[in-house]
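Our consortium's second objective concerns turning raw sequence data into structural hypotheses that experimental partners can test. To show how far this objective has progressed, the report includes one record in full. It was chosen at random from the queue rather than selected for favorable results. The single chain below, 129 residues long, was entered without modification.
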Amino acid sequence: MNKIIVVFDGFCVLCNNYTSWLSKNNPNKNIYFTNFESNYIKEEYPNLKLENSVFVINKNKNILTRSSAIKCCLNHLSINILIKLFIKITPNFILDIFYDLIAKNRYMLFGKNKSCQVPKNINSENILF
């Protein structure tokens, strides 16, 4: 099975909603989730620090960020084919402009949790603590 790990900002409301959406639209349950505060990240990737990006660790243990991470996640989702195709064919540098704009303003636009969280509606077998 082709599994990936999504590392997200557990303080960010947008990031938590994104991980919930990923989990809901991942029929094969091959996307795993963890946040920057987890023991998994501290032990396996101690140099990985919270930035303005969701990180994806692919099956080859490569760390993807920004639009590359989003495109990697799309390969595992059951969503509208036109949306998937549009994002896949859009050049990364264009997607990264929008990604950076939203990421830098995510707390102001969507809010910030008081503590680092993992969404409750994610299957516990897909959470790496």
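The partners drew two points from this record. Strands lie at 4-8, 31-35, 55-57, 63-65. The helical segments are 13-24, 39-44, 66-74, 81-89, 92-104, 106-110. Both points have been shared with the crystallography group to help prioritize constructs.
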